[in-house]
Amino acid sequence: MENNFIAYEYKEIVTDSDKASFLLDGYENFGWELDQNVNHENVLATGHGKVVIRLKRNRKIVNKMELTRLQRNFEAHLKEIEELERSKTSGAVVTALTIGMIGTVFMAGSVFAIVAPQPIIWLSTLLAIPAFIGWILPYFVYRKKVAKQTEKMNLLIEQKYDEIYEIFEKGNKLLY
Fold first, then answer.
1. Which of 166 and 37 is assigned the larger pLDDT?
2. Nearest CA to 23 among 12, 38, 39, 8?
3. Residues 55, 59, 65, 71: what is their CA dihedral angle, to the nearest 10 degrees?
4. Are 57 and 11 a contacting pair, CB within 8 Å?
5. Which residues pair with 11 in a beta bridge?
6. 43 forms bridges with which residues in the sheet?
7. Burial 60-85 (b: 16+ CB within 10 A, else e)
8. What is 113-153 written as a DSSP string?
9. pLDDT exceeding 70 applies to what percent of the chain?
10. Rg, Å, the chain Cα set
11. Residue 58 β-bridge partners
12. pLDDT digits (tens, 9 = 90+) for 85-117
């Protein structure tokens, strides 16, 4: 009688639902497969656009050390892509908020000029102009900076995806 015992290691991934298919395809290149023993649904919705992916892999898989190294490299690239995605808007937000705050300071000066014991209407009007500009301008600055940064970051993100596909290819060759 033949012993067909296989010991598995397990992995659970919580991710955005739009990335689930990519991650499933990716982890398969490192020997992981969907765990068929869990609720008959391998990708479970958690709400807020998140899903849970449950995977398993033979603990005695050939080339496990190298596959694990490639998998960690893949995961590091995914984190870099997330950082690049966040950097599309982070600089624009800071710039827009700074301009808005400067506009608010001018508006405060305008208000103080008008409510002074001796109201200075000309100073209030003079300070109100940059205040309103400081409140309107952030929207346009934000949009322009995001568009410019998105264009720049998309090139870097595409390079990262190319590197990830090379890692997938290496992992797949080790499996077969």
1. 166
2. 12
3. 0
4. yes
5. 55
6. 53
7. ebeebeebeebbebbeebbeebeebe
8. HHHSSS--HHHHHHHHHHHHHHHHHHHHHHHHHHHHHHHHH
9. 94
10. 27
11. 8
12. 999 999 999 999 999 999 999 999 999 999 999
Asked if residue 42 has pLDDT above 50, the reply is: no
At residue 103's C-alpha, the angle toward residues 101 and 106, to 5°, is 115
pLDDT of residue 168: 95
Residue 40: pLDDT over 80: no
Whether the model clears a pTM of 0.85, i.e. scores above it, the answer is no
Three-class secondary structure assignment of 12-47: EEEEEHHHHHHHHHHHHCCCCEECCCCCCCCEEEEE
Q: Is the dihedral of CA 81, 84, 88, 91 positive or negative?
A: positive
Instruction: Read off the tokens for 115.
Output: 């409510």
- Cβ-contact 141, 93 below 8 angstroms: no
Element (H, E) at 11: strand 8-16
Which residue from 112, 109, 106 is spatially nearest to 131, judged by alpha carbons? 106
Spatial CA neighbour of 71 closest among 166, 168, 157: 168
Alpha helices in 61-120 (DSSP H): 64-115
